[in-house]
Design brief:
single chain; alpha+beta; six-stranded mixed beta sheet; 21 strands; globular
Length: 506
């Protein structure tokens, strides 16, 4: 039996990412019908506003113009994440490091061993130039840069609701995806457990061949109908609650070309600049901080009077589905699982999983079993290693100002894989061969920035004179590139406002 009719339940970022990935892959087959079903009764979460450069692969494949993205989604450039006070302020004072998007290999040469031996007071960020470019508030692109190209690698911050609308418009116009409003209340299944029909609150029975559950935390199909178990990661990642508040941005206020992640005594705060506002979130562990204290510290961070804001409170159940693809249903987005958005994990995992589904989509029911086993193996691996990478930020901290940070440093909260990697990195820096799977979404360059940004200790290496001299020359070249950067890179706000002005004139 051929698979012709695909239903995507949920019309948030996950649903429309899935529609575009499937549309781009399957649109040549005129027999395929893709329908996105949106409930008017269920609002989208809409707090995923940060991305990593991986997002560009899909946007280009979908045929979405970068200018359109920037202009319609209040978007700004993201050159990485600035981590503030993730180390003990008593010992280190006010501290910060960058996990930037540029390669920590100037000229393709790894100078991490030189930095370990001779870095002195220079931050590890200096092995690249992007941290300093971002700190200067410069754009990663020139005015003359082509779409999706720049002097430096970059991603985006954007309004999640507007981004979903952009994806929706593209999927419908370019890939003939159908958009239907209906509230799904249940499903019918055959004797093998496959879903045959969706049931709506108006008594409709909607029949499809394949179903993609993008219904968010409701997990209408993968949980409530198919009852796929949830694998909790609460023992490794201890935060479980977030307060979310949008803040206005003054017309003349600088727009940082990076996300800021500021640690506090029981978690961290994200601060994401858009062209017209800041998206902020206070992430914390309810086992280590009361709701009242969280609100007080959040108000303090935002610089507002007590009682002047009413942030939205969202519980975070950290973990993922034991199986992402079960029978004729795949879960994506929050229906698939959730990790705190410390490294823009939500959109990354959704985008990766949706693309993988599209690339391996079965054309007939007989192909389902082989595709299912492979898909679940790959996505489980990606989730497990992403959990490890998020945990890395906590377990490396030497903060001791609360039980939250002490608990995070307990080896019982580490996976065996993370313990093994950290043991290895005590003797030498991470290298590409440590991340042998192409499904490690965070590899050696990501680990390098976080490990040495947080002052992880690796045994000194014996370096040749050639390696020493080349490393010194490359660091000096980095310094020269940074000194010259403002001559050809505009301030971030100026670049974005220049694009708006040009669009208004055309």
């Amino acid at each position: 039996m051929k698979i012709k009719r695909i239903a995507i339940i949920g019309a948030g970022t996950a649903g429309w990412l899935a529609a575009n990935h499937l549309g781009a892959e399957l649109s040549a087959d005129q027999n395929i019908e893709i329908t996105v079903i949106e409930s008017k009764d269920v609002p989208t979460i809409g707090v995923g506003e940060g991305t990593v450069p991986y997002i560009m692969n899909g946007l280009k494949r979908f045929g979405i113009s970068e200018a359109e993205l920037l202009l319609t989604c209040d978007a700004t450039f993201k050159q990485g994440i600035k981590f503030v006070n993730w180390l003990d302020t008593e010992q280190h004072g006010e501290n910060a490091y960058y996990h930037s998007f540029d390669e920590p290999y100037p000229g393709g040469f790894d100078i991490s061993r030189y930095w370990i031996e001779h870095g002195g007071e220079r931050p590890f960020d200096d092995v690249g130039i992007q941290a300093r470019i971002a700190e200067l508030g410069l754009s990663p692109k020139r005015k003359s840069s082509a779409e999706y190209e720049g002097d430096l690698s970059y991603a985006y911050h954007f309004n999640a609701a507007k981004f979903a609308n952009l994806l929706a418009t593209n999927a419908q116009k370019r890939f003939n995806v159908t958009h239907k409003f209906a509230t799904i209340t249940g499903a019918n299944k055959d004797t093998l457990g496959n879903i045959t029909q969706l049931l709506t609150d108006e008594g409709e029975e909607l029949a499809f061949d394949f179903y993609v559950d993008c219904s968010g935390f409701s997990s209408i199909l993968i949980d409530k109908q198919l009852q796929v178990p949830f694998v909790s990661k609460a023992a490794e990642l201890l935060t479980d609650t977030v307060l979310v508040q949008q803040m206005p941005l003054a017309d003349d206020e600088d727009i940082n070309p990076y996300t800021t992640a500021t640690a506090h005594k029981a978690g961290w705060i994200w601060d994401i600049p858009l062209t017209n506002r800041r998206g902020t979130g206070f992430v914390y562990s309810s086992r280590h901080m009361s709701d009242d204290e969280a609100l007080r510290l959040y108000e303090e961070y935002l610089g507002v009077e007590s009682g002047s804001i009413s942030p939205r409170k969202l519980p975070m159940e950290i973990g993922y589905r034991k199986e992402f693809w079960y029978k004729n249903c795949v879960a994506l987005g929050l229906a698939q699982g959730f990790l705190e958005p410390l490294e823009a994990t939500s959109i990354l995992l959704t985008d990766f999983s949706a693309e993988l589904l599209a690339r391996n989509f079965p054309r007939e029911m007989s192909e389902m079993e082989a595709s299912t086993a492979y898909y679940n193996k790959v996505v489980t691996y990606a989730w497990e290693r992403t959990v490890d990478f998020i945990k890395l930020h906590y377990c490396l901290s030497d903060r001791s100002d609360s039980q939250f940070w002490l608990d995070n440093q307990q080896a019982a909260t580490f996976s065996d894989e993370l313990i093994e990697r950290l043991q290895k990195f005590k003797y030498r820096p991470p290298q590409q061969s440590d991340f042998f799977s192409r499904f490690d979404l965070f590899g050696e360059k990501n680990f390098l920035y976080v490990l040495y940004g947080m002052k992880f200790k690796t045994k000194s290496a014996i370096l040749s004179n050639i390696e020493i001299e080349r490393s010194k020359a490359l660091l000096e070249n980095n310094d020269q590139l940074v000194a010259k950067a403002s001559a050809h890179l505009l301030k971030h706000r100026d670049w974005l406002m220049g694009l708006k002005a040009a669009a208004a004139r055309s």
